[in-house]
Amino acid sequence: MIHRRSTPWIHKWSRPLIGAITGLGILNTGYLTFEKLTGGNPVCTTPEGVKGCTDVLSSPWGTVFGQPLALFGLLTYIGMLLLAVAPLALNSVEGNKNRKQIENLTWWLLLVGAITMSVFSGYLMYVLAFQLQALCLYCIASALFAVSILTLTILGRDWEDIGQIFFTALIVGMVTLITTFSIYSDINTSGNIAEPTDGKTVQIFFDAKEEPKPQVGWQITTTSGESEIQLAKHLTQIGAKEYVAWWCPHCHEQKLLFGKEAYKEINHIECASPDNPGTPTQECIAAKIESYPSWVMNGKTYSGVQNLNELAKITGYTGPQNFKYFK
Fold first, then answer.
1. What is the pLDDT of residue 99?
2. β-strand 63-64 against 67-68: which pairing, if any?
3. What is the CATH number of the domain that holds 34?
4. pLDDT of residue 190
5. Same domain, 38 and 119
6. Mean pLDDT in runs of 10 for the chain (327 residues)?
7. Rounded distance, CA 253 to CA 327, Å?
8. Can you tell me where the transmembrane regions are (predicted)?
9. Does 4 reside within a domain?
10. Which residue, 183, 215, 245, sits at the end of a domain?
11. Are the beta carbons of 248 and 293 closer than 8 angstroms?
């Protein structure tokens, strides 16, 4: 009598479990992408004095090629979901041979994708802990999703050659790290903003080394070009208002984007009360300002640091747009 070896439960349920985890990843990154693209702030509670999700998402690491990092995460999770459920959706009429080929191919693609996600998430966890020194539950959850998917991918089937897994992990991991360092190579963590050269734009990252001066904040160290000055004048002409607090690093980042000459043209309203900096002024309370900086334009409020291209698009600005800096 021939006894067939029973299929381990992990092999039966690995793909559905990966599909479920990628579904959670889609919800996670989809929410962050929506908030970032609409100028909102994600719901995030952190202990007092600890940087939170908004600080992380508005940092230089939160943007890649001018788009929210969460958007690329969303697309990655969607791709992983398709790879996980594709064989499950195959009609049995297509034949076992075709199904087996697709299963084998998708497993390898899942492995490569999961390794890439895990290595990249590991780098971001390092940035979160040592560079930003912040707490972002959405980021931590995404990292856990990536590691879980990798674990299920490795344990979810019988691999003919385990050595190939380690070899693949080594190659894919190295390529991922090299690509990651290349993408973020222009981030200046010292807090000093270099002037652009050869017509290139420079990404800013403000890391306060000194305490801000009451009612003044930090010194604006960037200079303005004609595009920044013209945009600032346009914003004033249409009645745009920026609500700020002198102690707010993100408000200073917005100033750095404009440069010292252009920012003089901006109609900015100080919300920090002179007597109690933590208490907003009546004007800001009446305007229902909940975070800094906040822009009020054409009857709508836009929270957080806005890249100048975004401000130009929102307000219908049609002047020169070769802006020197981006966030």
1. 77
2. antiparallel
3. 1.20.1440.130
4. 47
5. yes
6. 68 94 97 84 75 76 85 97 87 61 91 97 93 88 97 92 90 95 70 56 68 87 92 96 91 92 94 85 91 90 88 91 82
7. 8
8. 69-93, 105-126, 132-155, 162-184
9. no
10. 183
11. yes
Q: Are residues 30 and 102 in the same domain?
A: yes
Q: In what order do the strands lie in the sheet with 300-303?
A: 268-270, 241-244, 294-297, 300-303
3-class SS string, the chain: CCCCCCCCHHHHHHHHHHHHHHHHHHHHHHHHHHHHHCCCCCCCCCCCCCECHHHHHCCHHHEECCEEHHHHHHHHHHHHHHHHHCHHHCCHHHCHHHHHHHHHHHHHHHHHHHHHHHHHHHHHHHHHHHHCCECCHHHHHHHHHHHHHHHHHHHCCCCCCHHHHHHHHHHHHHHHHHHHHHHCCCCCCCCCCCCCCCCCCEECCCCCCCCCECCCECCCCCCCCHHHHHHHHHHHHCCCEEEECCCCHHHHHHHHHHCHHHHCCCCEEECECCCCCCCECHHHHHCCCCCCCEEEECCEEEECCCCHHHHHHHHCCCCCCCCCEEC
Residue 104 shares a structural domain with residue 146: yes
Per the structure, the complete domain to which residue 275 belongs is given by 202-326
Which residue is associated with the tokens 């969303």? Answer: 74
Angstrom distance (rounded) from CA 245 to CA 294: 10
Contact yes or no for 28/71 (Cβ under 8 A) = no
Nearest C-alpha neighbor of 249 from the set 135, 327, 310, 138: 327
In a domain, 2, yes or no: no
Q: Is residue 170 domain-shared with residue 21, that is, in the same domain? A: yes
CB of 41 closer than 8 Å to CB of 304: yes
How many domains does the structure of the chain reveal? 2
Q: Half-sphere exposure of 249 toward its Cβ, with a 13 Å CA cutoff? A: 17
Written as six digits, the tokens of 223 are 């200079």
Residue 199 identity: G
pLDDT value of position 290 = 85
Any domain includes 188: no
Q: Are 57 and 70 in contact (CB under 8 A)?
A: yes
Residues 131, 27: Cα–Cα separation, whole Å: 27
What is the token pair recorded at 279? 């208490």
Query: Are 242 and 113 members of one domain?
Result: no
